[in-house]
Amino acid sequence: MKRCLIHHPDISPTILRRTLSAELIDLLGIFSEFVFTRGKSATWNHSFPSGTFYRQAIYRLRKNGLIAYRRTHGRPPVLHLTPEGQSRISDIIFPERFWNQRWDGRWYLLMYDIPETQRPYRSALGRFLARQRLGCLQKSVWISARDIRPLFHDLQEAAAIRDYACLFEAQTVLGQQGAEISAQAWDFDRLNVVQTSYLAECDQGTAQAPGDRGRTTIFAMMHNALAAYVEAMRYDPLLPSALWPPDYCGPKVASAFRHRLRSLAKLWP
C-alpha cells in the first residue's frame, strides 16, 4: 500500500532535509569551537530532538562524510564534524577567516554583457553573484576583494559564462581608496540598519531562558538564535577590515551571537 503524502507548493521535503543538514553543521561548528572547548577539538553528545527530518539529516551528513560517531569506553555515542564537515561550515559562523585576511589592493572584476533575449540567465547570474557576496559596482560589473577565479571557472563549466563575460584583475587608481570602492559596491546602509536592529534585540534580552529547560526547548532556542544571526549577516560582504566603513557592525554582531549561544549552552541538561 502506497503512503499518502500531503503536497504543499511552498514546502519541499528535499530542501527541508538539506536545510536541516546545513544547520546541524553550523551548530556543531559553533559548539565545537566556541561553546564546549573554547577553541580546542571537541565533540557534542548526540542529543538532537527526535524527528524524521533530523534523523534523515544526520544520515545524509554521515553518508557524505561530514559528521561521525565515536564511542569511548562504553559511553553514549557522540557526534562531531569531520575535516570535510569543517570545510562546509557557513562563512558567517567564523567570519574572522575573512575579516582578518590581508588585502593586497587587488580587485577581481566580473564584467558581462548578456542580451535581453537571455534575461532569465542574466537575472539568475546576478542573484548568484549576490549570494556569493560579490559587490555590484554597476549593473553588469561585479567585484570581489577575494580571488574569484575558481568561481569563474565553475561558472564556465556549469553555465558557459565565457560566452558573455570576462574576468579582470585590477587596482584602483587616481587616489580612490579601497573603502570608497566597497561603499559603492555594497549596500552598507541597509546592512547597518539590519545589524543595528539585531544588536538592539540582543541588548534587550528578547530570548531569555525559558522555564522549561529540556533539551528540545534549548535546541529550539539555539536554532532560533542561529536563524536571527543568519538574517543579520545575510547581506554582509565579509570584507577584509581594510575595506570596512567606519560604522560597520559585523564584529559586534558575531560577538553578540556567540555570547547568546554560550548562555544557552550553559542551560544544556
Task: Fill in the keyword field for this structure.
single chain; four-stranded antiparallel β-sheet; three-stranded antiparallel β-sheet; 7 strands; alpha+beta; 269 residues
What does this structure look like?
The chain is an alpha+beta fold and 269 residues long. It has helices at 13-35, 52-63, 83-87, 96-99, 119-131, 149-159, 178-185, 188-203, 215-233, 250-265; strands spanning 44-45, 67-70, 78-81, 107-112, 135-138, 141-144, 165-170. Helix 8 runs parallel beside helix 10. The protein is globular. The chain starts with 12 loop residues before the first helix and ends with a helix.
| Ends apart, CA distance between termini | 42 Å
- Radius of gyration from the alpha-carbon trace, in angstroms: 21 Å
The low-confidence runs, each spanning 5 or more residues with pLDDT under 50, are: 1-18, 33-50
Proportion of residues in extended strands: 5-15%
Helical amount:
40-55%
Number of helical stretches of at least 4 residues: 10
Number of strands: 7
Largest β sheet strand count, sense and barrel closure: 4 strands, antiparallel
Strand order of the largest sheet: 5-6-4-7
Q: In terms of structural class, how would the helical and strand content be classed?
A: alpha+beta
How confident overall, as mean pLDDT? 75
Order of helices and strands: HEHEEHHEHEEHEHHHH
Shape: globular
